[in-house]
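Reproducibility note. Readers wishing to regenerate the assembly model reported in the main text can use the exact inputs given here. Chain order matters: entities are listed in the order in which they were concatenated for prediction.
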Amino acid sequence: MSSTLLLAVAVGLAFVGYFYGRAKAAAFTPAGPRPWLHIHSRPVFHGWFVALAVAIPALLALGLWQASGGSLPSVVGPVAMLVAGLGGGAWAISRLEPSFRARTWVERAIMVLLLAASLIAILTTVGIVFSLLFEAGRFFTRVSPVEFLFGTKWSPQMAIRADQVGSSGAFGGLPVFWGTIFIGAIIAMLVAVPLGLLSAIYLSQYATPLARKVLKPVLEVLAGVPTVVYGFFAALTVAPAVRNLGLALGVSEASGQSALAAGLVMGIMIIPFVSSMADDAINAVPQAMRDGSLALGATTSETVRHVVIPAALPGIVGGILLAVSRAIGETMIVVMAAGLAANLTANPFKSVTTVTVQIVQLLTGDQEFDSPKTLSAFALGLVLFLITLVLNIYALRIVKKYREAYE
Amino acid sequence: MSTLAEPLPAAPAARRPPTDWKDPAMLARVRRRYRSERIFRSVGLAALVFAVGFLGLLLVTMLQNGLGGFRQTQVKIEAVLDPTLLELGSDRSEEALESANYVAVYTRAIRDSLGSDATRVASASGWLALRERVMADPALLGQTVEIWVPVRSPIDQYAKGRIDPDIPPELSPIAPDQRAAYLRLKEEGLIRTGFNRTFLVTSDSKAPETAGIWGALVGSLMTIAVTLALAFPVGVLSAVYLEEFAPRNRWTDLIEVSINNLAAVPSIIFGLLGLAVFLNTMGLPRSAPLVGGLTLALMTLPVIVVAARAAIKAVPPSIRDAALGIGASRLQTVFEHVVPLALPGILTGTIIGVGRALGETAPLLMIGMKAFIVDAPRRITDPATALPVQIFLWSEDVDRGFVEKTSAAILVLLMVLLLINAVAIYLRNKYERKW
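Running the prediction on these inputs yields the following structure tokens for the assembly.
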């Protein structure tokens, strides 16, 4: 019998148990003048109690049988399931009586379920850390961490050709890290920080309520557009324009895939993020400070520049750090617009590569799971995870500390 | 200290004359300050206009490139559905009809009805339309049918005016004889341009004129269904626990820190997790919506938890007190009163999370959903692709026809996202309660 059918049988048995338990409890005859003192739980809970007593052992038996992987005769599974389910049901039914605390039992089971659900977040974190550490550890047994972190030559593609001189490939990650920082933390931020900050200032200080009501959601739409759309736009429209600009400026190496095109589009994608963080920070500045400055005769812009921004600075910086963390983890825009060549260059018209591009490049297509080429993707992933983690924790701490300072 | 009680010494007489507001220097200073105020204000407005303008440019570009993808140029052929040429025996079962040799019939039909100079006008995959017709009505076998089939992509582009007719022939994607044949057929009235049904009902293809998004759409929907089925219950239960029952201790702090950090982990890291755990350790099938959905569920979970906690927190304590006061248990209070009242907020957050998951590409690339798949998946364990991944796949093709298809697929994706967000906004406006 297939496991789907067995599962259906177990659920069906639990259903039968539910209705039986409920019916039996509903038939309890009230004893004495005040029956509610003698019947502890409502019939539904008796029903649930029987259903759980059937389902949990049956599913456990089924799981164990599945885990044994067919080393036992095929008749064992269904029989074990039936015995466990029916046994659990019989035990439960034997306990049903007016004074039985069915609700307490059922609620205890639900609490276990609630706890289990919230542990999944921890399990995911642990899963990420362990899978990255494990695969990266295998990578570091072949390539030294020092070479990976500080080497200046990255060409993992050579690694699969054994007849080549450098058959182990070159795994110096510096050009990749530089590309990530160049696009995500420099170019994108040069676009996103001024534009996001100015938008936030305009929206919070100058815009009429109506304009704010219309423009703010429009700005948010920028954050809701899928990144693959930005990537396509960057490759289709922005990259050729940037290349022509480069050629017009006399940069002979201007490439069709450039750091500038990817960083520009990524910066625009990040604008709403910076703007909403800046908006929060600006709104947290006490009105008294603003009023004080205005009362001394300062114009709105002087108030913003000399009072509001300095007061909101920690919050804004925290927001920018969060934006950097998001930008360096962004994948599709750089995959489609930044290129694969690991250049250690500060020329924005040249093609650079990033951590995320390399991960995608190394792990799509056919993989052999033992080559350092494939494993290096996990080492890159580990670096990315750690950097974003540190940035996030640090930024959140700044933002929180600053918020408390004004409360 | 008694000094405070003593009267303050009289202020020294002002040595400065009162401010002369009419002084030219003062007027110039004020003018300068107001000018810088105006500049600052317009720079802020300019930043906003730039951001919104970029969004507009993006949408206009996609509309310009993509709207053509919903129209298709077709050519009319007459096909003789000869069972011998189709290599059909006496067997008329569905499998036999599906695997018959339509290519032979199609090739002959093109030559006979369009002329030998026009063999490169009709799409090489046009036989699919023949097959669809026969499968729908097997009684047509042995008869002659008129059928519209798509033309090849360069001709389609030419017909839509997207190829400059003046560029030198060696650079043009369309050969001179091809163009001549097309123009002749057009004269004869055998060409039409109509709604591109193919794009909506077929799956991926090597030829742009027969490529469609149906398979990717189904793959996306299956993936999202798995995501929703996992992330919604787990997220809500988790939020209920953290908000209503969790004791304040190191463990619950750890859970909170994990959730906040997961919300900020780059999506590609979830892809690596899916690859290492679901594919390599648990051995689930590659490229399947099941694995995609599992991966995206882990990614969406923190979003749902955060939204659900905020919604639960917004339910006033008086509701809880009232329920507890008439003898409900804590769980009854939560599940029969608090959660139903918080549900609109929870649903809005969930829809937003799902919308984000629907547009996500990178984690799906990691688990192998970047694949050339010509059929829509039937089960969640079949190999499949998703709409954003399909967009990425097509975007790598330089063919002009695929640029159009990519943009058209983007328009479909944006429409779906718009619809989802509209539902979220509607729900919020309709059911949100201010306490």
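We highlight two features of this model. Chain A touches chain B through 84 residues (CB under 8 Å). Chain A has 14 helices and two strands.
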